[in-house]
Design a protein that fits this description.
This protein folds into two domains: 35-107, Nuclear Transport Factor 2, Chain: A, CATH 3.10.450.70; 109-247, Glutaredoxin. Helix content is 44%, strand content 21%. It has helices at residues 3-33, 84-106, 131-139, 141-145, 163-171, 176-185, 200-215, 243-247; strands spanning 37-42, 48-55, 58-65, 71-73, 110-113, 120-126, 149-155, 223-227, 233-237. It is found in: Periplasm.
Length: 248
């Protein structure tokens, strides 16, 4: 092939790929409008374009036909039964999803328990009427008091009809951290008044906390979420049997 023909071939290749890319925009835009986050283009079967991404913090791969008639959300395997989707998610999507999960937790309504300088942060979904939440609070004292761990108590009202009003009472206090500390020091025997008329903003925040708890698959408290030494997000439902494995 001479130099002139080579230049023509390269030019045609770019035009075809640009045309294919332009075709992809309608389905891609449609999926984006539904909340799908496209992270990286990946290998795909013939006549399709593949993407790795996520929706509602659930990672997946999407394959869009170049004729704009079909798209597939699901796993892709090669002839050797290797799951190429898993590789793409691990390589391109996992970090983005973990960041979004952590950001969602940071934006929730929580009570700080521990120093700002703590090297480990643990989010804990708690209900004022949960005895196991009090157990975990007491178990964690040596690590919190030493400055190594900061707990962020995400208040929910799921155990009793009055739980939401009691959670609102804590969160609306001038010093929620102190009120929650005193409540736990009394082993939940301290009388905690139920707020009957919760301000709309606070009521919405508590509802959002509960939705977040459900979103991450928890149905009971305490529910814990933290990052391990590798930066991966870990979770546990219930007070841990061996807290050293979690906090050290």
């Amino acid at each position: 092939m001479n130099k002139h023909i080579l230049n023509i071939s390269v030019g045609l290749f770019l035009i075809l790929n640009q045309s294919s890319f332009a075709q992809q925009q309608s389905i891609k835009s449609h999926l984006q409008n539904q909340g799908y986050q496209f992270i990286e283009q990946i290998d795909a079967p013939a006549d399709m374009t593949g993407w790795a991404g996520y929706k509602d913090e659930y990672p997946s791969t999407v394959f869009i036909s170049n004729d704009q008639k079909y798209y597939i959300v699901g796993d892709l395997f090669d002839a050797n039964d290797k799951n190429l989707t898993e590789d793409a998610i691990q390589k391109h999507v996992k970090g983005a999803v973990l960041n979004e999960v952590w950001n969602s937790l940071e934006k929730s309504k929580w009570i700080q328990d521990g120093k700002n300088s703590a090297s480990k942060i643990i989010y804990v979904f708690v209900d004022p009427n949960c005895p196991y939440c009090h157990t975990f609070w007491n178990q964690a004292r040596p690590w919190v008091d030493s400055g190594k761990v900061q707990l962020r108590h995400i208040m929910v009202g799921v155990i009793r009809p009055g739980s939401k009003g009691q959670a609102a009472t804590i969160l609306s206090a001038k010093n929620p951290e102190q009120i929650y500390k005193e409540y736990n020091l009394s082993n939940a025997k301290q009388q905690l008044k139920e707020m009957k008329n919760i301000p709309p903003t606070l009521s919405k925040a508590l509802d959002e906390n509960e939705k977040l708890m459900e979103k991450y698959g928890f149905y009971a408290t305490p529910a814990l979420i933290w990052k391990d030494q590798q930066g991966n997000i870990q979770s546990q439902q219930g007070a841990p049997k061996d807290i050293k494995l979690l906090l050290d």
